[in-house]
Amino acid sequence: MIEQAEIDMPRIKVRYIVSINRTDENIEGVRDTLKLIKELASPYIVGVELSGDPRAGSFENLRDVLEEARSEYGLKVTIHTGES
């Protein structure tokens, strides 16, 4: 579907950023998400984002996973804060 859209409308590019909720205490579950991204090997998945309530959870808990996303998987990382 995206491939056809790029043919039909070459000036429009669609890419995905996979969301990781900062309140997720299951670090292995987050790592499983990264592994799935790697298995999919989709050129359309370009990054991960840390989202969710910034008053809950801890960035420190996910720092290593986000660094892994960048260094091991070549993904861009974005962090959203102050949104509710």
Mean pLDDT: 84
Helix segment tally = 3
Quickly count the domains. Answer: 1
Q: What is the helical fraction, as a range of percent?
A: 40-55%
Q: Termini separation (Å)? A: 32 Å
Helix-strand topology string:
HEHEHE
Largest sheet: 3 strands, parallel
Shape: elongated
* Proportion of beta-strand residues: 15-25%
Number of E-state strands:
3
Description:
The protein has 84 residues and is of the alpha/beta class. The protein has one domain (2-79). The chain contains three helices and three strands. Helix 2 packs parallel to helix 3. The radius of gyration is 14 Å and the shape is elongated. The model has no long low-confidence stretch (mean pLDDT 84).
What's this, in brief?
This protein is α/β, with parallel strands linked by helices and 84 residues long.
List the keywords.
84 residues; alpha/beta; 3-stranded parallel beta sheet; 3 helices; 3 strands; 20% strand; elongated
What is the secondary structure topology, with strand pairs?
Layout: H1 2-8, E1 16-21, H2 27-40, E2 45-51, H3 59-71, E3 76-79
Parallel strand pairs: 1-2, 2-3
Helix pairs in contact: 2-3
